């Protein structure tokens, strides 16, 4: 019998009479941490089967689920004498409102004086709605609302202000590159209700020099390199001009690597002015590449595939563009020429048989050789880099999950394809192989599980069993925004094959809400209907604020991302309290055997922490795969690579230390 514990889900995988049965879930109620927010507990698992006895224990971290609180005022800025209205909402990590009583809610002025308090406040369906009347002589500055013993704050400002009539915006450019010969500058001005403003515009586009105090007097006052434009605003409320890059200094070090756009718009008939200024960075990047749909490990003797996304200097996808893929291996470099498709993606499929189970680095390049011409404006290409480690596996079989690209929508069924290859050496004829899968999201301590049996017999395919199956998945708020999928199969001989991927899911909520006006445009003083749709029985909190207020003091509006951001999480590792290390026999972590050759002289050590681990290896194994999704595994299956206590790869085991360029392997003194 094999037994596994998956953070609260206990699965026992029995085997009897040559037939391997699917796992079944066993839920265990975990007690809350005693006297704190977290506690380290020990989980013991025991399995007994035909000629098998298994027992193992591991540490797990039990944490209390923390709630999130947000405070929202009806606007970000007030004048003395106005009424401040604000709401308080507490949510669980699954976005369920909490109706617990607030012992105290405090309001403090800019001098940290408590000017109001509310005691024993009870929410109404999770929402607290409070208000406070500011005095006509209220102190100007930033006020704060504190909830939960001061652990959560909301702020607003009290100022004497005049609401702006219109908004000035630099529409173009959003970014600049040394690869461009010229660029368009476009500045627009519109009233707060959207109508274009008419009048005159004055626009200056300048590159300013750096100020070097140590330079000689002749260079202390370098002139600004500017283009000034004045003219009538067009009927769309905009003014545009083209600027040549040649008027700027792009090769020297005396001018800034950005331009400043300053615009003044004067309203026709009133002479009222509105201003804006914006700095635009001049990038020297000519193009960029990134690897996509790849892992950081490969299965020896199985093809390794992936894609390279290629972009130009402006971030646009480069279609049908030739690039280079360089494979850096122990036997030298191999170059391939790839061509992107209409999505800017260049696909590749590599034979790993000649990699000899060693680490390999992949590099995507625009050019095989870097060139430099002092007569040209300096620029660079951002190449793509990927370091691959061999995946340690005791089986000859393979399992791979196909990735879903893009941000996936909630509530829409998805089909995830899983490819597999089962070698006859890993399973006997007439044996059924069951694939288990888990979808996990540790942000919300949520997991779903299922099983997919493969009923084909090896006797029907005497040489191999190869194919694919699909897993139907539908994502919701409990799995958003970055769930992981783990698929694995355990063979009767103890071998395991597995794979994992991580999805990107939109930040959604189960209660779908829509808000709008009918009609969407109306004259001042006219009636307008507010249309609000939500789940039946929902308590809806609505606020309306003049857009001029938001122009005067832009604030971080309540959004899906801000609500999700209240619940941080860890990923791709075990918490340090329950970390697992395989240590060599007789090894003392703090009194380890020193190498015969000192890899880094002590005088070259820096002040950062150095941990020496003689058993460090470049290989990735099943244990690290499960660890990277935060799963604790208790099993007698073969999921770990053997520990190598005899040699040390300094490049990977000396963490955060320098000076390992010349020494690769070192013999160690035997322990006393």
Automatic annotation (TrEMBL):
<protein>
    <submittedName>
        <fullName>A2ML1</fullName>
    </submittedName>
</protein>
<dbReference type="Pfam" id="PF07703">
    <property type="entry name" value="A2M_BRD"/>
</dbReference>
<keyword id="KW-0325">Glycoprotein</keyword>
<dbReference type="InterPro" id="IPR040839">
    <property type="entry name" value="MG4"/>
</dbReference>
<feature type="signal peptide">
    <location>
        <begin position="1"/>
        <end position="17"/>
    </location>
</feature>
<dbReference type="Pfam" id="PF17791">
    <property type="entry name" value="MG3"/>
</dbReference>
<dbReference type="Pfam" id="PF01835">
    <property type="entry name" value="MG2"/>
</dbReference>
<comment type="similarity">
    <text>Belongs to the protease inhibitor I39 (alpha-2-macroglobulin) family.</text>
</comment>
<dbReference type="GO" id="GO:0004867">
    <property type="term" value="F:serine-type endopeptidase inhibitor activity"/>
</dbReference>
<feature type="domain" description="Alpha-2-macroglobulin bait region">
    <location>
        <begin position="399"/>
        <end position="552"/>
    </location>
</feature>
<dbReference type="InterPro" id="IPR002890">
    <property type="entry name" value="MG2"/>
</dbReference>
<keyword id="KW-0732">Signal</keyword>
<keyword id="KW-0722">Serine protease inhibitor</keyword>
<dbReference type="InterPro" id="IPR011625">
    <property type="entry name" value="A2M_N_BRD"/>
</dbReference>
<dbReference type="InterPro" id="IPR013783">
    <property type="entry name" value="Ig-like_fold"/>
</dbReference>
<dbReference type="InterPro" id="IPR041555">
    <property type="entry name" value="MG3"/>
</dbReference>
<dbReference type="Pfam" id="PF17789">
    <property type="entry name" value="MG4"/>
</dbReference>
<dbReference type="InterPro" id="IPR050473">
    <property type="entry name" value="A2M/Complement_sys"/>
</dbReference>
<keyword id="KW-0646">Protease inhibitor</keyword>
């Amino acid at each position: 019998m094999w037994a596994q514990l998956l953070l609260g889900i206990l699965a026992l995988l029995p085997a009897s009479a040559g037939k391997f049965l699917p796992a079944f879930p066993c839920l265990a109620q975990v007690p809350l941490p005693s006297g704190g927010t977290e506690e380290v507990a020990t989980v013991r698992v025991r399995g007994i089967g035909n000629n098998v006895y298994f027992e193992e224990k591991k540490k797990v971290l039990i944490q209390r689920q923390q709630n999130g609180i947000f405070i929202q005022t009806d606007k970000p800025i007030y004048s003395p004498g106005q009424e401040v209205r604000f709401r308080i909402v507490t949510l669980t990590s699954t976005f369920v409102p909490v109706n617990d009583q607030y012992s105290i809610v405090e309001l403090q002025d800019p001098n940290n004086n408590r000017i109001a308090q509310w005691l024993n406040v009870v929410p109404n369906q999770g929402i607290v709605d409070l208000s406070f009347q500011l005095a006509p002589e209220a102190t100007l500055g930033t006020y704060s609302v504190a909830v939960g013993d001061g652990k959560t704050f909301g702020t607003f400002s009290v100022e004497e202000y005049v609401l702006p009539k219109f908004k000035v915006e630099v529409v173009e450019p959003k970014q600049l590159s040394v690869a461009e010969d010229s660029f368009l500058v476009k500045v627009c001005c519109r009233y707060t209700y959207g109508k274009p403003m008419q009048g005159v515009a004055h626009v200056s586009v300048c590159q300013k020099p750096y100020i070097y105090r140590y330079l000689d007097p002749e260079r202390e006052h370098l002139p600004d390199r500017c283009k000034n434009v004045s003219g009538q605003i067009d009927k769309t409320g905009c003014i545009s001009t083209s600027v040549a890059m040649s008027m700027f200094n792009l090769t020297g070090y005396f001018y800034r690597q950005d331009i400043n756009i300053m615009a003044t718009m004067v309203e026709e008939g009133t002479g009222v002015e509105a201003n804006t200024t914006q700095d635009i960075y001049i990038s020297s990047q000519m193009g960029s590449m990134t690897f996509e749909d790849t892992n950081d490990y490969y299965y020896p003797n199985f093809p390794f595939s992936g894609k390279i996304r290629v972009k130009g200097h402006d971030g646009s996808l480069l279609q049908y563009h030739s690039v280079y893929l360089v494979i850096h291996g122990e036997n030298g470099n191999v170059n391939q020429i790839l061509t992107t498709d209409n999505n800017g993606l260049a696909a590749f499929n590599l034979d790993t048989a000649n990699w000899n189970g060693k680490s390999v680095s992949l590099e995507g390049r625009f050019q095989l050789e870097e060139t430099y011409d002092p007569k040209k404006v300096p620029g660079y290409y951002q190449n793509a880099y990927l370091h691959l480690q061999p995946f340690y596996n005791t089986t000859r079989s393979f399992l791979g999950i196909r990735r879903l690209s893009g941000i996936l929508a909630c509530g829409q069924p998805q089909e995830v394809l899983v490819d597999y290859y089962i070698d006859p050496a890993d399973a006997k004829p007439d044996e059924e192989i069951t694939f288990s899968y888990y979808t996990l999201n540790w942000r919300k301590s949520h997991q779903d599980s299922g099983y997919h049996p493969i009923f084909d017999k090896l006797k029907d395919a005497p040489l191999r069993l190869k194919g694919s199956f699909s897993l139907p998945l539908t994502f919701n708020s409990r799995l958003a925004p970055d769930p992981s999928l783990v698929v694995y199969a355990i063979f009767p001989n103890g071998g395991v094959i597995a794979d994992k991927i991580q999805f990107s899911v939109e930040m959604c909520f189960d209660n779908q809400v829509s808000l709008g006006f009918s009609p969407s445009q109306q004259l001042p003083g006219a009636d307008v209907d507010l249309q609000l749709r939500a789940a039946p029985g929902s308590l809806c909190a609505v606020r309306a604020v003049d857009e001029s207020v938001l122009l005067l003091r832009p604030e971080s509006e309540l959004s899906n991302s801000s609500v999700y951001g209240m619940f941080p999480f860890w990923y791709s590792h075990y918490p340090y309290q329950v970390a697992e290390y395989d240590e060599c026999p007789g090894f003392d972590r703090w009194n380890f055997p020193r190498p015969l050759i000192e890899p880094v002289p002590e005088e070259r050590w820096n002040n950062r922490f150095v941990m020496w681990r003689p058993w460090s290896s470049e290989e990735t194994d099943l244990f690290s795969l499960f660890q990277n999704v935060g799963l604790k595994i208790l099993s007698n299956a073969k999921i770990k690579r053997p520990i190598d206590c005899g040699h040390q790869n300094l490049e990977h085991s000396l963490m955060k230390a320098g000076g390992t360029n010349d020494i690769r392997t070192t013999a160690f003194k035997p322990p006393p």
